[in-house]
Amino acid sequence: MVKPTRELVIAKIEEMYPNRDVSEILVILDRYGDEECEKEKNRVQLAALKLSDEEGLPDPARYITAAKQEYRDVLAWGRIPQLNEI
Prior knowledge:
Layout: H1 6-16, H2 22-29, H3 41-55, H4 61-69, H5 71-78
């Protein structure tokens, strides 16, 4: 099983958004993970990326907003314990 790391988040951004600056997407993703109650930062960010990709959204902000309310919802929606699906 692949461990959800920051490097994997960056690699996924580069794959999904080849014509955008990685830091632009990281600003959106990093809205999640600073609060003590915001668990599994990299995993949630990867799920948000996956979900936005599946829906053809230009950025994952919608899912980051949802994760700030209940991160487990975003993980469930993205069906991510299987990181090899990413």
